[in-house]
Specification:
Blueprint: E1 5-7, E2 14-16, H1 33-64, H2 93-99, H3 126-138, H4 143-155, H5 159-172, H6 177-189, H7 193-206, H8 211-223, H9 227-240, H10 246-257, H11 261-274, H12 281-292
Antiparallel strand pairs: 1-2
Helix pairs in contact: 3-4, 4-5, 5-6, 6-7, 7-8, 8-9, 8-10, 9-10, 10-11, 11-12
C-alpha cells in the first residue's frame, strides 16, 4: 500500500497521511476527503445497519405487545362439565339455595291480622280513594273516611302514604280498637317499630282478650329488640290461644337472641310439635340440632 501525502494547513509542510500531527509544527492534521471517505462510508453503513435492526426490533416488540382481548372465562362445574359456565342458571336456583336450612336463628314470624278487623267497603282503586278524599275535604274529622283511605292506600301499595290518615283516625277515636290495630299493622309494614309498638299497646289495652293483638305487640317488641318484653307478651298470647304455633316460635327466637339456649331449644320443640310441617319447621329443626348437637 502506498502512503498518501497531505499538506499541513498550519506550516505548509508535506506530511504522510499516517501522521496525526505535523512533525514540524505539531499542528493536528486535517484529512482530505479522499482519505477519509472509505472509513466514513464504513461508519455510515454500520450506523445504518444498526438503525435498521433497531427499527425492525421495535416493530416486532410493538406487534407482540398489542393488547389482545381476553377470552371469555368458562368455569368448570364440580362434576367436570366444561360447558357448565355457559349454561343458563336453573330457575330459582339462588332462592332455593337461600332457603336451605343452615342452623342459624330462624327469621321472625309474620304479623297476624285479627279477624276483628273489618275490611273497608270501598274497593282498593283510585276512584274509591278520590271519593274518600272528597269526603275528608268536606269533614276533616271523619275518622271512618280517614281509616278507609288509609286501607285503600295500603291496597294500592302506597304504604307510607297510608300512615298519616290511619294515625289521624286512631287519634280521633282513642277508645276504639280497630283504628289502633290498623295503624299498628301499617306501621309494622313500613318498619316503624316504635309506632307499631305504641299502636298495638293501645289496641291491647282496649281489647285485652284478642290473641292476634297480643301476638302482634310481642312481635313488634321483638323487632325493636326488646326481647324480654317480647317474651312476656308472647306468653300472654299463648295463654289466649294455646294452639297457635307462631307465638311459640317468637318465644324461641327471642330466647335464642338472649343467649338462653336451653330454654330456646324447649320453645323450638314446642313449635315443631304444633307445626311439624310449618313453613319454618326445617329451619327450626336445623337450629335445634346446632343448639343441642342432636
Amino acid at each position: 500500500m502506498t502512503d498518501t501525502a497531505i499538506i499541513c494547513h498550519s506550516c505548509g509542510a508535506k506530511v504522510r497521511d499516517t501522521n496525526a500531527r505535523c512533525p514540524r509544527c505539531r499542528a493536528f492534521l486535517a484529512k482530505s476527503p479522499e482519505t477519509v471517505a472509505p472509513s466514513s462510508n464504513l461508519v455510515r453503513n454500520v450506523t445504518l445497519g444498526i438503525l435498521g435492526v433497531a427499527v425492525v426490533s421495535t416493530a416486532a416488540i410493538l406487534w407482540n405487545t398489542r393488547e389482545e382481548p381476553e377470552p371469555p372465562q368458562v368455569v368448570a362445574a364440580a362434576g367436570g362439565d366444561p360447558l357448565a359456565g355457559r349454561r343458563p342458571a336453573e330457575p330459582g336456583g339462588s332462592a332455593a339455595a337461600a332457603a336451605l336450612p343452615t342452623g342459624e336463628i330462624p327469621p321472625d314470624p309474620a304479623f297476624a291480622r285479627s279477624s276483628r278487623l273489618v275490611d273497608s267497603p270501598d274497593r282498593g282503586d283510585e276512584a274509591a280513594l278520590e271519593r274518600l278524599r272528597a269526603a275528608i275535604a268536606q269533614n276533616p274529622q271523619d275518622a271512618a273516611a280517614l281509616a278507609d283511605a288509609g286501607r285503600v292506600l295500603q291496597t294500592l301499595g302506597r304504604l307510607r302514604e297510608a300512615l298519616q290518615p290511619l294515625k289521624q283516625a286512631m287519634e280521633l277515636q282513642p277508645d276504639q280498637w280497630a283504628p289502633a290495630f290498623a295503624y299498628g299493622l301499617a306501621a309494622a309494614r313500613t318498619d316503624e317499630w316504635s309506632e307499631a309498638v305504641g299502636a298495638f299497646e293501645r289496641a291491647r289495652r282496649l281489647t285485652p282478650g284478642d290473641a292476634p293483638t297480643s301476638y302482634d305487640l310481642a312481635l313488634a317488641r321483638q323487632k325493636r329488640r326488646d326481647y324480654a318484653a317480647a317474651i312476656d307478651e308472647y306468653n300472654a298470647a299463648i295463654g289466649l290461644d294455646s294452639a297457635a304455633a307462631a307465638p311459640r316460635l317468637g318465644v324461641a327466637i327471642s330466647l335464642d337472641r338472649l343467649g338462653r339456649a336451653s330454654e330456646a331449644a324447649d320453645a323450638y320443640r314446642d313449635y315443631v310439635r304444633l307445626a311439624p310441617a310449618g313453613p319454618d319447621a326445617d329451619r327450626v329443626r336445623a337450629r335445634l340440632k346446632r343448639l343441642t348437637g342432636s
